[in-house]
Protein 1
Amino acid sequence: MAMAWLIWPFLLIFLTALPANSITESESLLKFKQSLTYATPLDSWTPDSDPCGGVQQLWVGILCNKNAVFGLRLEQMGLSGTIDVASLMDLPALRTISIMNNSFTGDIPEFNRLTGLKSIYLSGNRFSGNIPSNYFSTMVSLKKVWLSNNEFSGLIPLSLATKLPNLITLHLENNQFIGNIPNFTQPSLVDVDFSNNRLTGGIPSGLSKFDVSIFAGNPGLCGEKLTTTCTQPKDATASILIDGTMKDAYKTKYYIAFGTLGFLLVVTIISLFFKKKKKRRKRRKRTRRASEQDSNDDQQIQVIVDGSRTGGSRQSKSSRSGELSDKSTGLTGTETADLVMVNKEKGVFGLSDLMKAEAHVLGNSGGGGSRPTSSGSVGSAYKAVIESGVTVVVKRVTVMNQVSLDVFDKEIKNLGSLRHKNILTPLAYHFRQDEKLLVFEYVPKLSLLHRLHGDHGEASRLDWPSRLKIILGIARGMCYLHKELGFLSLPHGNLKSSNIFLADEDEPLISEFGLQRLINLDDQVQSLVAYNSPDETVSAKSDVFSFGVVVLEILTGKFPSQYSGLNRAGGTNVVEWIGSALEQGVWMDLLHHTVVAAAAEDETSSEEIENVLRIGVRCTGEDPDRRPSMAEVVDELITMEDSSDDFITIET
């Protein structure tokens, strides 16, 4: 009995303290909101609602996974004030914070108290002052750090280089950092930028693999990668008078050095002489071969139309000018107007190489009358194997006859300069006023449309992990396009499953992007699927709608009626179909059987499928302003992918 009286006070203290620690996510976020000076954009944050509410009722700027808040994406909202980091410590699932392009000032907030964060985006504010050297020491899960376009000063925190083993992305550009760059040795680091600061000293060896542009705008930096040579500090003994013996030793070293340089110079001259002689021989051989080739009377060009075995193969002759003219393909061209290469990663070739190649007409879904096709494309396509062994797709475009050569050249070269593993960049173009040729790399596995709706059971072989990988790849590619082509009203404009190709291991490649400004105004509605969104005016959010349609198509396996220029009767309005099913609570019945099977077998897959469905529904909402950005979509999908990771948490 006496023991019970001894224990009772401690038990009472414990029970009294318990409610204080059981703050809800809603209360935590509302407390955070109160710390902001200007929070009008967060009016949807109200005490009587849930941050991770229904499919279309999430709080603005809140990213959820498994009904828990994992991210804050509060970008370009004009927010300011002193951020209450303590309030965010009651969000145990919080993994990403982005407050980019707002009006925050002062020292960097104490986000290092949130030890489970994987990414932090503070770019585009007016944060200033020094960042403590050990600031990031407790944030060992961090993968992405964006501090660019602020007013930070002082040394780059050493903990960024020594305490973050999984660091992938680091952006420190456009600040006022000074001193030497720490040696970043993380093998995971692939994206880094130190440009436009006040950094000095040599480039560390760990960063030598990166392009020189990431160091631009730092006149005090030096090293092999830069034009400035690092000067070694003078040895203190250099100013001391040395005796004759030491002088003789130095003289001997100088003689050896100059002798070695002289020998190397002679070897170089002899080597150049023989190389020049070898080039002359090669030139003579090429001239001889060219004259032999010109002696031929004509060239053979074979065109085969896929899907036709009777009368499907023709041969035509052309003169030595390399003119190709075949009614079955409609391709025409002369050597006087050659191809313009905009991407040389697959080598350099000319129009004459295409003229000699065997060409096959391609259908959007890979051919076959019973397969669904989505026309409304920018042109018909032909496959050609050129002499170098490279296989290309030549797209003949007739809806751009009102654009000038200068404009066309500038736009296609801009598209050709883009690089991302999930986009299919054009290789070359040929310009004629009445038609254009766009040349792309050929992808053997054909399109996502073919895999989802083909006749041979391809869709059944796309299991849930493959479908999720494809959705994430498409989202990443679209996010990249929206960033790089953000100046366009439609960064893509024609996103649909027939314009998404599957490379090795089902990695998606997005094609036909960024062409809206080149297409005749009268032809845009018929050519671009973005015009089938419910928006009054097309914009980047019309692309988001198209992405949502593709997501629902992948989940359900149904061919969407939202695709323009259908070459097939029927098609399902997947947006209305899924919306109605959600209201009735029977949405699982509408998914493809491989997706349903995955949900039944594994609880994690079931949660992933539901979250991806939520993303698809939000992307296809009628109000463009309520649709997420592609960057938000990528963050949600990546967090889903990372949700099974074991996060390291260190007590502060």
Note: Residues 373 and 567 are 6 Å apart (CA to CA).
Protein 2
Amino acid sequence: MRHVALRLLLPLWLLLSLAPAARAQTVATDSLRLALSHALADSSRVLLLLKLASTYRSSKPDSTLELAQQACELARQVSFVKGQGRAQGMIGSALRERGELPKAFANQIQAYQISRQCRDLQGQAYSLNGLGNIRFDLQQYRQALDYYRQSKEIYTRLHLMPWVAGTLTSMGSCYEKLNVLDSALILQSQAAAVLAQTPRPRLASAALALRNMGALQARLGNYPAAFSYYRQALQETGNTNDLRNRAMAQCRMAGLYHTLHQPDSSLLYARLALHTAAQVSYRTTILEASNLLTQLHRVRHNVDSAFYYQSLAVTMQDSLFGPEKFQQLQLLAFSEQQRQQQQREAQELKTTSYQRFALLVALGFILTVALLLGWANRQHRRANHLLNERNQQIEAQRNALNEALTELRAAQAQLVATEKWAFVGELSAGIAHELQNPLAFMKNFADVSVGLLDHDGSPRPQGLEGEIMAGLRKNLREISQHGQRASSIIADMLAHARTGTSQRESTDLNTLVTNNLQLAILGNSEDTHSHPVHLETDLAPDLPSVLAAPQELGRVLLNLFTNALYATRRRQQSSPPDYQPQVQVRTRRMDHEVEIRVRDNGTGMPATVAAQVFEPFFTTKPTGEGTGLGLSLAHDIITKGHGGTLTVETEDGKFTEFTVRLPA
């Protein structure tokens, strides 16, 4: 009966809470529409369209997007550059709130560039704040902080205090996510102080600040204060018809009730949050509310409801953070980094030109003085002698300055290249880390779904229904297995991106080869017992010690031995009974090098495959048996870490031989 009562009260509560705000919004929008009907197709109409679009932003995002696009197109037609930049920024904000993060990022970057070209500070601040919001959605809180700080500085210069409050509360929320709660509390308090001086009606930043302060108080354990801030946020959204912030506040209240073990209240507010967020297609809150509803129904053993909300959460997760969108964001972020780098390079070149001009002016002045001194004192040998010495010193200084300038340019070019590649590596590692979360999410929910199917308490179905259930269980297990495989690929990617090398030391290669060969045999002991492999070792007794990192070099050898054993095992599966698997390991000393050869009579490789074996993610093994990073890492360790070479000779169906050469 309690659940029925909650369902009956929900529509009535929504109707009562939305009615006053809807009327208030109608007055404002009707006034703007009336003014718009009399406006000419010029810059004033562009600004009216943007104001009207802003009134719909938190309640009808589709209308906001449509009006902003109209404003952008009209601004292009009438060459109103400032209006075009602001319209582009509003398009980016609307797309971000709909979950289209790559498109939102691209529009905000374009808006920022346009606003910067026409020196529209307010447009620049708006786009920087929008870029910070996108970074926040992607959980890249430190990058978001950087954008928010830039936006706050501009809004402060323009004395737009409601927007200053919005950036302050967003910065505080970043620090709260980073678990720096003291800084978060200071910033949220500053935002509250600014908002207290803001007359009504206020911007959406007021509800945002109240909601963020509630979240911070909940983190600090002040639950009554947190509820108070959430309720104030809901009241603020009722005054402005801000459905987006209302949905987020309802979701936070549901989460807090869940923390306090009040499932009925948590269920009520989670449903309210999902319903409100769905009205404005705010996918982030839909995802959070769906996850919470999945947990609540799972505890109540409502299998159908839990599965429904879980499916909704999975859909929202893919639409927000799918691999394709991450790739698009990666390319956009890299392009933006290159653009910023080019701007810095241009500024540095300009500075260098100014320095050179100043240097030439100084040199010209000194030379002029020297000539005047020479003309005035040409009758005195001593003066001439001093003047010659002075000229020689000036020439030496000029040569030294030219050399220093040449070295500075070379260092700048090297730093620019280093920074670009460091950014690419950091971005790739960050994205690899971010991908761990959705993969774990997919695997865990697959395991939970299998558990729900296996322990729902009902008898096993028979016939076609039983086959369908068995197929469903099999599909879920395969989803979990492939998620685990993707996680292992990402772990190898992070290992591939790891910087630095181990300490080099004098190493006995024969001992290192023997130890790792034994490890490879032990690691494949089950297969070698069923398919005995003939091992032939020929280790040169006079092999000198080499300077190497034993752990990294051992990793290379272990990979080569394991691959050789695998190749012979694969060939034996399809060969006649008289086939004898064989692996040969040889070491020898050359003029200024030592050589290690690993040869097997396994499956071999075609020439087209052999040309790609050292490329990352390329593998000849079946799906699930390899990530394609082993030989790529081995090649980097030998060539970059030890200054040696790693080559391969092979013939399809006959043999493969890897040769490692290291400087002795």
Note: Confidence is low (pLDDT under 50) at residues 1-24.
Protein 3
Amino acid sequence: MSNQLPYDYYPLEIFDNIAHYLTTKQKGICQSVCRSWRRFFTPSQYRHIHVRGRRQFSQFYKSLEPEFVGHYVRRLSVEDVYMTAQELHTLPMLCPNLIALSFNGKSIDSTVEEQKVEYSPFAPWSHLRRLTELQDLTVTNYLLRSPSSPLSSLTHLSIRFNDNDPNSKADFFAGLHKATDLINLSLDSVTLSLSEIESIHQACPHLQKLRLMNARLEPIGSTVKEKRAVATFLCQPAKSMRSFEYQNGSDLYDNYEWLYYFANKYMAIENLELWCEYSVDTPHRIPPNVSDLEERYGALARLGMTCRSLKSAAFLNVSMNHWFFEALDQMGTQLESIALGDMTDNTIDLLQYLGESRQNISNLTLWGWPSLCIQETMEEIITTIGQCSERLSSLVFSMRFSGIRNSPVPIDMLLKCCPKLSSLKLDGIQAALLSSTDFARDALVNNPSFVRPKLNRLVLENGSFRNELFEYLSIRCPNLAKLEIGSCALIGECSQMEVRVDMPNHVFEKISISHLRPPTRYHHATVPGDIRLFDVSLLDAKKKNSNHWHQLYELTDYEKYTDSLTFNYEQKPMETNRPTKYTCHANPDDRPAGPFVSIQCQSLQELNIGNFWVI
């Protein structure tokens, strides 16, 4: 008599609920137990697919044909992949139940023949709600031109226009009236006029979010009188709009009349983001005179007067003064988050105005500028950050666009000035320390009531650090549970080729590390290769019935790729390598020679290395 449980009688929803609490690796283990378990846990493995590079896509595509697994795929993200026309046209039949598709690649010889317009290979995607295309508009154009287009089912559409195809914008606007249910629209690399903006809202009456990236807005008027007339332009307010983002635009310097239009059109928005184009390679613009500056300040203040539901505002590389904060206070608007930074020392004054206003924000994004490489200026800005809000819990500090690489930011001073921070992201920054770890340890021993920061999440991007940083965090930040490191380098003695994340008392929810490099002997040397070895030790491994769990992972089979920049700010994308596989060594104590990352903590729920979930 068999004691095996009759799994076949259980609905698949039960196994989906179980898989919801498992990591990616645990799902893979369950799938490999037996044939029955493979059938039950395969849907959870294929529910959300993120493919990077041609090699991964080929493996994924081959797995779809012999089995029925493509029907389980709900969300598919294809990044940096050149598809053939056959692969692209058969994908809807292999994955007919897609809800979201993100395609950041190109289709080879994918020109649609006119005689095949009646036959739409994308018809099976009747469930498609979210579509993102960031290279060619292959899928979008087919949906727009097909008579039986499922475009009306889309709620989220994000596309990047091709400069080599001048007709792409005209074709897009000609078929946009089909997308009547669209609530989120993102347009990249496009030039728009006032009439075209108005046509978007007429075609999509339920639109809630509009994002324009790398875009150009045509001037509405040529003289100051004509520009001011826009303030009284009787346009129909878009009452459904809740978010407007104008990112990396090049026109708010001169065509500030668009600020008046935004104020009249988007009176009900809750999120507003205005980011002017910036690059250290771009020659400085001729500074406007006093009267022109006052015109811009007045236009920004009008936004604060009319948009009374604002919760989040971002003004990056936009000249502004205290008038905007005074307008918010006058209207009784209370912001939750704000982003500031105009690439000058004027940003310090803006933070002081923010602290003097009645705005008590919880989230701050700050863009740094070149003079922050001076230690006194950096310490001044950190002190000002601590005074700008009493409840600041999240801070994003970026020096990426300043032209200064690895400018040191004393993270100990930052946490001292902002003890309530729970989330901190440093971008293009060297995470430095003013005091030694011995000082922090002595202060903790001699003063039991020593105030500890509430830091829970730390993100380091495009920067550098020393190993002393993690020793300090182990002492000062006991609540740190999420650590993310991407495109960073270890600095210090070149003989020290080990990154030591030595935090034995910490209980981590997630550690994510990608593109971490060892120190180099020469300052101007070629960027060294990524660290491939990861030595992981967990001191509390109850699942293994032992007090110690030790594994050694190695990233393998690297391939070259080029990052696609989200924003076009005259920075050349960097060609680098990325792994396509990883291996787990049978004997972790027998480590190969080479630089490695050593991770030691109490417990760890999820570990992501090189974009692979190994735990």
Note: The chain has a mean pLDDT of 82.
